[in-house]
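Ex. 9. Protein: Protein-S-isoprenylcysteine O-methyltransferase.
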Amino acid sequence: MPAATLTVFHLSEFLLSWAFKRSDFSRHAFLFSWPYCTAMVLALIEYVSEKHISWPSKQHQGAVHLGLLLIFIGECIRKSAVITAGRNFSHQLTHGQRLDHVLVTHGIYRVVRHPSYLGWTIWVMGTQLVLQNPCCFILFGLLCRNFFKRRIAIEDAQLRQFFGAAYERYQRQVPAMG
Ligand SMILES: C[S@@+](CC[C@H](N)C(=O)[O-])C[C@H]1O[C@@H](n2cnc3c(N)ncnc32)[C@H](O)[C@@H]1O
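Predicted structure tokens for Protein-S-isoprenylcysteine O-methyltransferase:
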């Protein structure tokens, strides 16, 4: 199940990037960065070592079901953001404004300003619930919060530069991650 979850996530990220013919499309669209792979190896180590010492929490079916639900909800939020933003979405932050870059404020972007980050956070927390990894659940939560806090500050500043008053208005009206 965890392998299937990872395959669906990474393959769909790559295929959507290819389908929208995004300007930053490359093998990096699989989203296997070093920090991410390191985090997943840590999760695997926690899982295997706790399973080996018969950690009691590894037997909670409720946690597995809740984790699967979070994975599903996270994927839906993330993919609806990727599809709604279309070619305006890019895995890397853009440094100059592209000519075809338009501000997206409809669909899921009407409800939350950074839906793909919200979806990814929910998805990754779900993976740790399925594995019943208490340490990585907390660690990944803290890492996501710090990483996205910094990234959102940079991205908001760039988008204010690109779209001026329209983005400032959007930023006032719509919360960052819910
Ligand atoms: C990884 S995507 C993340 C998009 C958004 N932060 C989210 O969580 O759905 C980053 C790229 O999307 C662009 N972007 C973010 N929000 C946007 C919006 N509302 N309209 C158009 N482009 C946006 C940024 O300029 C950046 O190049």
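Check your answer against this statement. The chain has six helices and no strands.
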